[in-house]
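User: I've been trying to design a sequence by hand for this structure and keep getting stuck. Would you show me what you'd pick, starting by listing the structure so we're on the same page?

Assistant: Good idea, let's start from the same input. This is the structure you sent:
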């Protein structure tokens, strides 16, 4: 799906003109970009989180020139999909994860060694 198809889908779903749907989409994407640019994460519950991450400087290899090159540190956007989004894409994986969480026994808190020694002396 591209931008034009998304605008058409918004316009049809909400009974607005394509121009109005395009402005709405531009407002949403512009707001996300502005917030992430400032360093603020944008969390859409169930869909995912847009955030800015720092990528460290590193050395790479240019195979064409056969030389090592330095890549500077940079800030890049990152999207982390939410649980509902992941479940919609792969329901079997979501079911396996839910079953695994349900089957996991609740661990009892271990008594600290000093506390156990004090109880033994009494």
């Amino acid at each position: 799906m591209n931008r034009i198809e998304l605008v058409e889908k918004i316009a049809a779903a909400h009974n607005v003109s394509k121009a109005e749907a395009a402005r709405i989409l531009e407002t949403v994407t512009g707001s996300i970009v502005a917030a992430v640019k400032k360093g603020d994460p944008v969390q859409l519950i169930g869909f995912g989180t847009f955030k800015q991450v720092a990528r460290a400087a590193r050395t790479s290899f240019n195979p064409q020139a056969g030389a090592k090159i330095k890549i500077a540190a940079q800030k890049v956007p990152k999207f982390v999909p939410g649980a509902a989004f992941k479940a919609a894409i792969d329901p079997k994986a979501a079911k396996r994860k839910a079953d695994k969480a349900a089957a996991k026994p609740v661990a009892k808190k271990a008594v600290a060694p000093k506390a156990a020694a004090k109880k033994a002396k009494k």
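That's my pick for every position. To get oriented when you compare it with your attempt: Residues 18-38 form the longest helix (21 residues). Residues 1-40 form one domain.
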